[in-house]
Every structure is written in C-alpha cells, then in structure tokens.
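Following up on my earlier thread - several people asked me to post the actual chain instead of describing it. Fair enough. Here it is, all 495 residues.
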Amino acid sequence: MVTDQQVKRLWRLRQEKLSLEIAAAKAGMDAKTAAKYVRDRRLPSEMKQKHLWRTRPDPFEEVWPELRERLLLEPGLQAKTLFEYMQRTYPGRFADGQLRTLQRHIKHWRATEGPAREVFFAQEHQPGELCESDFTHCRELGITIGGEPFPHLLYHFVLTYSNWETGMVCFSESFESLSEGLQSALWELGGVPCEHRSDRMSAAVNNLNDLTEFRAAYAGLLKHYGIEGQKIQAGQAHENGDIEQRHYRLKQAIAQALMLRASHDFQSLADYEKFLRDLFARLNAGRRLRFAEELAQLRPLPERRLDSTRRERMRVSPGSLIHVHRNTYSVHSRLIGEIVEARVKPDTIEVWYRDRKVEELRRLRGRGKHRIDYRHIIDWLVRKPGAFDNYRYRQDLFPTSWFRMGYDILREQWGPKRGAKEYLEILALAAGNGESKVEEAVRFLLTNESAGLRAGAIQHLIEAPGMHAVLPSVEVEPVPLAVFDELLTGNEAAA
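Reply from S.P.:
Thanks for posting it. Predicted structure:
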C-alpha cells in the first residue's frame, strides 16, 4: 500500500529531473503506480473514497419511525432507555450488542433533526467592570490544624478582566461570611468595580429566616459600595464561569503548594491564613499589567466599611437558652428573663446586655444544633441533680471523654441518683477551679485502682501543692521492628 510520504518523495524526485523508473524505485513503488500519481497529482489519502454504504442490514430500519416519534416528543430520551424499551416490546429481536448501532442512529438524528443545543457565547471583559465571587468547599485538600481535621470553606473573589483574586476562610455560606468576604476583598483591592456577579446564594438565604430579610441585607451591602448586583440563573454555574474556573485552579495551586511544603498540617488558623495570603500574592504576581488597567478604572471606596454584624434581640428562656439562626446556645443563668442582643458575626456570636458584652460564643455551623456550656447552669444543676438524667442537652455536659468515663463509673459505684449528684459536684469543681485541673485529677483517680472517684477526693487533689507530681506518666516502649520482619518471612515462629 502506497503512503502519502512515498508519493511526496516521488514528486520531489521527479522535480530533480530523474526518470520515472528511477524515481519510482527510490520512492519504493512500481513504475506503473508512480505514473498514476504523477499524472493525477493527488495523494493516496485524497484518492480514497469515503465509505458511505452499509455492510449489513440496519436492524432498526422497521422500528425507526416509532423511535423517531418518541424522540420528537421527548428529545431527552437516552439511547439505552429506548433500546431497553424495544427489547421489552419486541422480545428476542434485538441483541445487547446492537445498542451501539442505535446510539449512532440517535446521534445522527440529534445532529440533523434534533432540537437546537445551548450555545455558549464567549465574553469580552472590560477592565474594572465586573467581579465575581462564590464559596467553595475545601474538604479534598486535607488541611489539619494542630493535627485535627479542619473542614472549612473559602470565600473566593475574582476580577474577570485581570483574574486578580483573593479570598478568606469561612465556615458556612452565611450572609455574614458573604458580607465580610466581599468587603475584605474590596478594601484589599483598593477600589470598587461596577458590577458584582454571584450565584443564587440559596445557602446564604437558608441561613436567614426568610428571603425578604436576605434581599434587604444584600441590597444594603451593594448600595453602600455602589455596586450593581447580578445573579446567574438557577443551575447554570457556567454563567459564573470565571469564578468556577478559578475555584479549580486555586485548589490545584493550594494542593501543589502543600506538596512543596511537605505537610498539610498547620500549627494554628493564623498560620494557614498566612499561607493562603502568600499564595494569593504569588498567583497575582503575573497579572500586574492587566491589574494596573483595572485599578485605573475602579471607583473609590466609601469612607468606611459597612458593619456586617447582624443584630437580633431576644429574651433568655427559663432554661437559660437563646435561639439564634435556628441553633440553641446557653448563656449565664443570671440572664434568665432578660432581653439580650445577639450580634451575629461570621464565626462568633456576641451576647450584649445593656450595651455591655457579657458572652462571646463560637458560632455553630448548620441548623438544629446546640451548644450548652455547663458553667452557665451548673450552680442550679447541683441544686437539682434529679434533672440531670433526662436533661435534653445532657451530652453537652461532658466536656471530655474523661468526664464521661467518670460519670459512668460513678453510676456503677453509687447508682443513678447518687452517681449523678457526685458527677455534678465534680463539674462544679471544674467550673470553679479550671477544667484541665479537674480532668487531670479524674484521670489520676480512674487510672489508680487504690483511689476512689469522689468529688471530695478530687477537691483534695487539686488543692494539693504537688498535684502534677502524683499524676502518672505514661511511657510507651518502642516496638522492635524485628517482629514485623518475622511476620513477612512467614516462618513457623512468626505464625
């Protein structure tokens, strides 16, 4: 079979005034074949006729009108669905291997007779005109803080013309996180674009009580900076294409930076945030020219930032509880019946009473959750020990696993009522003397069989001057690696 390369060589040789026989021999073909290609001046690939005829009968020729009608009614039907339908309608007529034939049929129908497909229109961005932002989950990065898993999100902000980007760590798609992230990005940027595009922000809406509340808060934020807001259509993430693509690129850059760092663990949240700031600075370094064009077109910032804290007034319930954003928190029992103001921030909730901050609580993520601090209610639990066993939020009253183990042992030793009373007195000692001291004392008494676990014994231990000296030290002997070598050899001794 003659190839295109042989024919091209033949033509070059003929241009060098070689005879047809010699040129054909050097090109590796017969003289008659060479004469044909010299005369026709077409390559073998150009002379090959396209295969337009069938080599076997079409198994779907008779049933195609029926299939076509169904496709006209429901263009979204898949070939596999229709093939299984035909197998049920005509038992034994169509073999499984004929599915590919039907897929080709339907593909050809969609290209020639099917409905028009969605067209994606490339956009030409103008400097200083549009910014986009969105939240993205970072679970797949495997970040840990102090060895503990750190599930979190990033609020991600991008200028569509220069691709200048920044972001901040957050823990929920709340309006407070959106407001804090957008404002931080604008003040870092040093100016205000004309428009801000986002998705439908359904998660942020769900974290508020109603849609009207969110719309009013978001409109106020945009009005403060003079930005026109845009929202993409539901389920059309490609309309927010710049930020979606930057999500992927940013996570890829973070993953590579973590590989270079040779560790996914950070000593503190501040260290992780510094790591992200340095990464953003490196990513933006190559965008200086286009970013300079954007800066020249940005409008000035307002005189001050908008306070993104949301304020809610509520009365403290008889259970010493407040309900903020569908989650339950405890406050000190002396506030029962009083009107307090909850100032909701992205990560914390401040409780204010008469213009004075009385509590700062770590904000819960999600909804329907609760966080009860035993220090707020322990004085009355000690007076009402019978309420402990059936208390709705009892699990929150075990600060660590050692306290839980201590409670279980006290129940075994003294029974449910006396055990609960002893445990609550221990919890009261933790509230008054420090949780870590009491935990060390509980650990000592649980690991020392000669000592009985009692509130009085713990009181004595924490008041003793040399308390740390009596606590046992745990030493783990090194495991000889030869044991594993024996296991790998499979000898009888290892077995």
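Residues 203-208 have pLDDT under 50 and may be disordered. That should answer part of your original question.
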